[in-house]
């Protein structure tokens, strides 16, 4: 996957080195090599397209009012909502007020209030323009306009500002959504009648006179509102809302559509819409609120604030024809509206975590919400694995994402009660020059601007919004530039840190750090995202007792220069003494070094190598005796609060690192020393890169590989009450390595990465993996001198660190081994192991070593070997053979002990592979009733084919690789070839063949594709409905993801009054009480068809059903219960025939593949007029509305269609 850079708003030149530096910044130590093939291009809107963050003076509304929607015609912006009055920009509330009743207009170029002032007696929810912008449609909860009756929908002439009397309609409930063509006005909401006729929250009217269109009758369930409509490019009507299912007033069949759906513009029938198989936004706590298009893409946005119905909040982009996902803006935070201008998608939202697409992370402990933000209109990379509240939010890392653009205007929170409580922004619209935002905010960027605001591109906006030192909450009215953080970190050392940023420029052209008004450091072209500390300066030119003041002078890409307030300190001269150990830690490149020597009265823990100070929780104490000399350390009290982390220390979990610590404990409950988790306080959900003790006192180093636990364990126990040194490293070259007391303790060379997510380094308590032998996740004891490195320390460096503490590392062995396997039989050789780590040989597997005592006495030798083969078996020789009982993947551990009593271990993973099943393939040729067969291409990848067995479908067989067979009659036959290898495994393949005639269509589905592609004969398959169609190289797959889902695959080129359809059908699980249906469509004409249905129900029972569908209504003609039964995965043969045009005879038969075909089990006649001519054929699948066994997969194969 690719990390996403945060994009500058305008065209600042970004060389590749700077783009790469930004990706490195967002990933702290850098992304794993395997995951960062290339960062996304550092592209952004050019200087003439992106709007600035300058607040342009705009008409204001009264406090307590809100703007729900806007529409733009030329220089006029129409705004509707709950509005009582308006006043000019700059006017205080209650002054210069002009009465307005729920609808107003203002100038987009000046912001001045317009004269448009109709009296609308209820809330306006939606505004929509006709394609030529001559008419403004207004929908909502009103019943009169200027005293005349207009129930919930009215049209205004935009030239005159008057109601258009030619469009007169009547809705029986609220209108929330409108989309119009030149001829048709589509409406959605929460009404049950339109123009006095029953409707199911949808209606369509003639634009010419408001006449109700009778054919367009989609329906959603009671209480399920329609919130958004869009006539998409291509003509489909896309609907969004809080509905879970959708159907029709003329058809009781419901289709699953969780929040969005595509509808035919004439019939209202559902069309393929792929996004609602992935994104679910519906129900009382979720829904799709906005649908927009730029002419090539449909952009959706919605909300979800609780419950389990939905799975996404934010914006998404899809293709207009079938809803295929282009990108997902996996930013957590409800999104209320979007608009697209010049390649930028602007959003009204309250997004608070965009780390899954490479931008700002969740802020803790106080959540920060951005109420307006922007993305690229095109995808720029991949969504990263979800790192925010994984129990609630789905992982979308298989999809692409846009890049976040650095446009962050700051809106103060709206009213804390009432409509969308607290949400300040509700609507956003744009032209090529302006972006306009409406809602219920009191201020923007700290300036009074009630409910409406404009932003303009450079030239129309002054571009004077300058940089700041630190982010302040978007809801704050604080307009201060801010003050840098200044801290004494030693008697004669001062550290200055800051996170300078700009609301509409990512790159600051120049940042000067001034000490006592003299520049001491300059940063040029500083990439400055608001959430990252990018200025960190250590000042050692200090005189004790002197006061020093520091401030920043910052210049953005527009040339705006701001100067911060000054932060001052007076160093005391009392310096924490460095030691040989601390000097070596810093010399070896520690990125963070927490000595834990801070005053016991404080809560801050100083980072002596970087700028990420920790905040300690109450269960972690300071001031206890430490591990190094006379330094102090920290105590931990076996509670969840016995930890420390930085709320601002969010980084992407690195795949090259070292983490180092000292610990002391006598606990028999275990607990974490140091690790990585997705939250800075409390218990993490995602957590790995952890070092902890198990209940027995062994050290464990744990990684999580996307749900697969990987851990290595020290052979020795360390809960003896003494100080011990531990280092865990990860790298692509050496994998996992665990060191204890200066020497290797365990390793796993093939494990080179952990889970990809964002989080925090935590000292002390956190949740541990559930399978570990601990009785507590919280350590009781002491911790000291914790360090994190962006590299994997070498064994020599680790040994030097231990020795620099005043101790001496013991001589330890190196465990290493080679292995080879033949099927289940494996041989292991430990001869690469060495008794002394300093004499280690190069081996296939790197080893581990652990010290037990100083290396006094004679040179050690290897005294013993201990194997654990991963299946409960063991051995104690240097070389060992082991045969596994069954195929599988096993973790093999070698533990080596030298003559000094020191031990080491090494782990490797072995794949023991059993006999592979041979692959049967054959070809055939027909000449009349005689067919020749060739199975000689069958293959056994680990042996030889020994036996062949043909089954010709008429009771005859053969045992030759190549053979022929003459059938007695014409027709279709099920032919099967079984091949057996030299180990007795059998594989088989089958197909349906036709003798003595020609076929209308056939398909063996020997291809892989989304959709069903092109049949072997009969042309391309066309699919419809909400089921997912694919081919896997063996059969045609129809996936039914939920109750009420269904779909049809048709061969439109086939047209016949007679059809004989035969093929294989299977289901992957037992049907539910109400059944899962697989069917042949025997004759289809328009929206009418005959179906022969096979219904899978409980207990392996089947039903055969013949039905017809006319005008969207299905009528069952006949049902029988055959003797044939099934189990999941069984292959059933289904044959159905239809003869003659005007008085059709329909027959159906089902039987188990490989058995003799019975006579017809169902026979019926029908003469429906709508179906008395030739039609096409196809297949259909459906999951009952009340089914409880979803998802279900139906497989179709060996399909043959003839006219006899």
In round numbers, the mean pLDDT is: 88
Largest β sheet strand count, sense and barrel closure: 9 strands, antiparallel
Q: Into which percentage range does the β-strand content fall?
A: 35-45%
CATH architecture of the largest domain: 6 Propeller
Counting structural domains, the number is 7
Radius of gyration: 36 Å
Which stretches are low in confidence, meaning pLDDT under 50 for 5 or more residues running? Answer: 1-48, 838-857
Give the overall form: flat
CATH topology of the largest domain: Neuraminidase
Content-based structural category: mainly beta
Q: Residue share in helices?
A: under 10%
Figure out the total of helices.
3
> How far is the first residue's CA from the last residue's CA?
54 Å
Strand count: 93
CATH secondary-structure class of the largest domain: Mainly Beta
Write up this protein.
This protein is mainly β and 1204 residues long. The chain folds into 7 domains: 89 residues, no CATH class; 311 residues, 6 Propeller (Neuraminidase), CATH 2.120.10; 100 residues, Immunoglobulins (Immunoglobulin-like), CATH 2.60.40; 225 residues, Jelly Rolls, CATH 2.60.120; 95 residues, Immunoglobulin-like, CATH 2.60.40.10; 70 residues, Immunoglobulins (Immunoglobulin-like, Sandwich), CATH 2.60.40; 202 residues, Sandwich (Jelly Rolls). 2% of the residues lie in helices and 44% in strands. Strands 48, 49, 52, 53, 55, 56, 57, 58 and 62 form a 9-stranded antiparallel β-sheet that branches. Strands 78, 79, 81, 82, 84, 89, 90, 91 and 93 form a 9-stranded antiparallel β-sheet that branches. Strand 18 and strand 19 form a beta hairpin. Helix 2 runs antiparallel to helix 3. The protein starts with 15 loop residues before the first helix and ends with a strand. The N terminus is likely disordered. Keywords: Disulfide bond, Signal. This is PKD repeat protein.
């Amino acid at each position: 996957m690719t990390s996403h850079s945060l994009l500058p708003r305008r065209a600042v030149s970004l060389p590749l080195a700077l783009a790469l530096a930004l990706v490195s910044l967002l990933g702290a130590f850098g992304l794993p090599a395997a995951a960062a093939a290339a960062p996304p291009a550092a592209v952004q809107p050019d200087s003439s397209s992106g709007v600035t963050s300058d607040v342009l003076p705009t008409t204001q509304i009264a406090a307590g009012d809100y703007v729900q929607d806007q529409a733009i015609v030329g220089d006029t912006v129409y705004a509707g909502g709950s509005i009582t009055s308006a006043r000019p920009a700059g006017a205080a509330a209650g002054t210069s007020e002009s009465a307005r009743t729920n609808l107003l207009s203002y100038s987009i170029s000046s912001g001045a209030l317009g004269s448009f002032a109709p009296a609308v007696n209820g809330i306006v929810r939606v505004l929509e323009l006709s394609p030529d912008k001559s008419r403004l449609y207004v929908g909502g909860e009103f019943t009169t306009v200027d005293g005349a009756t207009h129930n919930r929908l009215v049209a205004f002439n935009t030239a005159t500002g008057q109601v258009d009397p030619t469009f007169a309609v009547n809705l029986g409930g609220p209108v929330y959504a409108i989309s119009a063509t030149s001829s048709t006005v589509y409406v959605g909401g929460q009404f049950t009648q339109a123009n006095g006729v029953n409707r199911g929250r949808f209606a369509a009217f003639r634009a010419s006179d408001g006449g109700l269109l009778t054919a367009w009758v989609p329906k959603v369930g009671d209480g399920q509102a329609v919130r958004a409509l869009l006539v998409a490019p291509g003509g489909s009507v896309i609907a969004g809302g809080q509905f879970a299912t959708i159907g029709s007033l003329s058809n009781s069949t419901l289709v699953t559509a969780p929040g969005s759906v595509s509808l035919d513009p004439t019939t209202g029938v559902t069309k393929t819409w792929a996004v609602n198989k992935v994104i679910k936004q519906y129900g009382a706590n979720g829904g799709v609120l906005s649908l927009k298009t730029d002419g090539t893409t449909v952009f959706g946005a919605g909300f979800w604030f609780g419950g389990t119905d939905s799975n996404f909040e934010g914006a998404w982009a899809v293709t207009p024809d079938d809803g295929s996902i282009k990108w997902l803006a996996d930013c957590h935070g409800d999104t209320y509206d979007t608009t697209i201008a010049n390649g930028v998608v602007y959003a009204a939202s309250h997004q608070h975590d965009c780390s899954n697409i490479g931008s700002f992370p969740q802020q803790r402990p106080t959540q920060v919400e951005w109420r307006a933000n922007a993305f690229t209109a095109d995808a720029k990379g991949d969504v990263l694995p979800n790192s925010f509240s994984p129990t609630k939010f789905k992982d979308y890392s298989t999809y692409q994402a846009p890049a976040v653009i650095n446009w962050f205007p700051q809106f103060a929170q709206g009213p804390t009660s009432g409509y969308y409580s607290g949400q300040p922004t509700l609507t956003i619209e744009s032209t090529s020059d302006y972006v306009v935002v409406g809602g219920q905010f009191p201020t923007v960027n700290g300036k009074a601007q009630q409910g409406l605001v404009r932003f303009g591109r450079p030239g129309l906006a002054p571009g004077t919004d300058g940089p700041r030192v630190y982010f302040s909450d978007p809801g704050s009215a604080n307009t201060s530039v801010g003050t840098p953080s200044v801290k004494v970190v030693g008697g004669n050392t001062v550290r200055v840190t800051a996170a300078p940023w700009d609301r509409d420029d990512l790159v600051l052209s120049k940042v000067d750090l001034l000490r006592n008004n003299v520049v001491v450091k300059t940063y040029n072209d500083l990439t400055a995202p608001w959430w990252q500390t990018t200025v960190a300066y250590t000042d050692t030119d200090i005189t004790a007792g002197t006061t020093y003041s520091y401030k920043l002078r910052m210049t953005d890409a527009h040339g705006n220069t701001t100067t911060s307030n000054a932060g001052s300190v007076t160093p005391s001269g009392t310096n924490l003494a460095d030691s040989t150990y601390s000097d070596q830690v810093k010399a070896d490149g520690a990125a963070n070094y927490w000595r834990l020597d801070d005053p016991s009265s404080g809560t801050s823990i100083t980072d002596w190598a970087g700028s990420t100070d920790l905040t300690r929780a109450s269960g972690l104490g300071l001031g206890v005796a430490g591990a190094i000399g006379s330094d102090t350390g920290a105590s931990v009290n076996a509670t969840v609060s016995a930890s420390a982390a930085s709320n601002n220390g969010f980084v992407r979990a690195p795949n090259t690192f070292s983490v180092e610590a000292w610990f002391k404990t006598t606990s028999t409950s275990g607990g974490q020393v140091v690790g990585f988790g997705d939250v800075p306080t409390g218990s993490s959900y995602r957590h790995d890169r952890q070092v902890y003790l198990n209940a027995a006192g062994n050290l464990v180093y744990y990684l999580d590989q996307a749900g697969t636990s990987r851990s290595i364990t020290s052979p020795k126990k360390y809960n003896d009450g003494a100080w011990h040194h531990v280092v865990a490293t990860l790298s692509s070259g050496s994998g996992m390595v665990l060191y204890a007391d200066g020497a290797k303790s365990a390793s796993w060379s093939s494990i080179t990465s952990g889970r990809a997510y964002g989080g925090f380094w935590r000292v002390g308590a956190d949740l541990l993996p559930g399978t570990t032998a601990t009785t507590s996740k919280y350590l009781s004891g002491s911790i000291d001198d914790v360090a994190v490195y962006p590299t994997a320390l070498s064994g020599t460096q680790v040994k030097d660190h231990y020795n620099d503490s005043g101790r001496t590392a013991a001589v330890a062995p190196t465990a290493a081994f080679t292995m080879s396997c033949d099927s289940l039989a494996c041989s292991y050789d430990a001869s690469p192991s060495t008794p002394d780590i300093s004499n280690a040989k190069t081996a296939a597997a790197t080893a581990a070593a652990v010290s037990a005592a100083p290396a006094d006495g004679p040179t050690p030798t290897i005294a013993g070997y201990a194997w654990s083969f991963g299946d409960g078996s063991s051995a104690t020789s240097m070389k060992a053979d082991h045969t596994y009982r069954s195929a599988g993947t096993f973790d093999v551990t070698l533990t080596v002990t030298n003559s000094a009593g020191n031990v080491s271990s090494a782990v490797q993973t072995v794949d023991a592979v059993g006999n592979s099943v041979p692959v049967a393939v054959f070809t055939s040729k027909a000449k009349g009733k005689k067919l020749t067969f060739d199975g000689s291409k069958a293959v056994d990848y680990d042996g030889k084919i020994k036996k062949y067995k043909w089954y010709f479908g008429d009771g005859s067989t053969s045992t030759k690789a190549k053979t022929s067979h003459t059938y007695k009659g014409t027709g279709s036959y099920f032919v099967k070839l079984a091949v057996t290898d030299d180990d007795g495994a059998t594989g088989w393949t089958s197909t349906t063949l036709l003798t003595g005639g020609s076929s209308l269509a056939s398909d063996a589905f020997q291809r892989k594709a989304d959709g069903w592609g092109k049949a072997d004969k009969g042309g391309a398959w066309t699919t419809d409905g909400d089921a997912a169609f694919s081919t896997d190289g063996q059969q045609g797959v129809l996936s039914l993801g939920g109750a009420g889902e269904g779909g049809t695959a048709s061969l439109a080129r086939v047209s016949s009054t007679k059809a004989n359809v035969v093929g294989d059908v299977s289901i992957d699980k037992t049907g539910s009480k109400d059944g899962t249906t697989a069917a042949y469509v025997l004759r289809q004409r328009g929206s009418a068809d005959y179906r022969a249905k096979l219904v899978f129900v409980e207990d392996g029972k089947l039903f055969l059903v013949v039905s017809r569908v006319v005008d969207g209504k299905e009528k069952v003609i006949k049902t029988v219960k055959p003797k044939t039964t099934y189990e999941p995965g069984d292959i059933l043969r289904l044959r159905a025939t239809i003869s003659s045009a005007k008085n059709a005879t329909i027959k159906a038969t089902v039987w188990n593949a490989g058995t003799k075909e019975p006579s017809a089990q169902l026979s019926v006649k029908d003469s429906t007029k709508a179906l008395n001519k030739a039609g096409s054929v196809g297949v259909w699948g459906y999951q009952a509305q009340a089914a409880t066994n979803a998802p279900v997969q139906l497989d179709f194969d060996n399909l043959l269609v003839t006219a006899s």
